[in-house]
From TrEMBL:
Residues 49-112 form the Cupin type-2 domain. PANTHER family: BLL4564 PROTEIN, RIBD C-TERMINAL DOMAIN CONTAINING PROTEIN. SUPFAM superfamilies: RmlC-like cupins. The lineage of its organism: Bacteria, Pseudomonadati, Pseudomonadota, Gammaproteobacteria, Alteromonadales. This is Cupin domain-containing protein.
């Protein structure tokens, strides 16, 4: 028996979702979120394609069940609290550990795109905190070092 005949699928054709501007409560600089998807229960996975203009980045945040990033274009930086700022490039996979505060975004001179995949715990996939300061962003200085 062909499982596609008995399985229910959802197809969201490319270009049918309107991109949204990344809210200033969560991002610094110009950020565009597209292909946003949250699976219906009982699944709890969500994903988005996020485009960062040069100089744009997330605020500090954490994920109760972690987050996987796949860089698809450009060059960016990411940093876990207390750790070193790391350069990320197309093809790089980044696992952000459960509950660990971190940020990610484009470098100061290059745009960057990544696919972000995370699961929600009791309906919540992310906890947002304060903006990443220019000093931390540009120099890699980290709180808790």
């Amino acid at each position: 028996m062909n499982t596609l005949e008995t399985a229910s699928m959802t197809l969201i054709p490319a270009g049918t979702q309107q991109p949204i501007k990344g809210p200033s409560e969560w991002f610094t600089g110009e950020v565009v979120i597209s292909s946003l998807f949250n699976a219906p229960p009982p699944a709890r996975v969500g994903m988005a394609v996020v485009n960062f203009s040069a100089g744009a980045r997330t605020h500090w945040h954490s994920h109760p069940l972690g987050q996987m990033l796949l860089v698809t274009q450009g060059e960016g930086w990411t940093q876990c609290e207390g750790g070193e700022r790391t350069t990320i490039r197309p093809g790089d996979l980044i696992w952000c550990n459960c509950g660990k505060r971190h940020w990610h975004g484009a470098t100061a001179s290059s745009s960057m795109q990544h696919v972000a995949v995370q699961e929600a715990l009791e309906g919540k996939a992310v906890d947002w905190f304060e903006a990443v300061t220019d000093t931390v962003y540009l120099n890699g200085d980290s709180v808790g070092k």
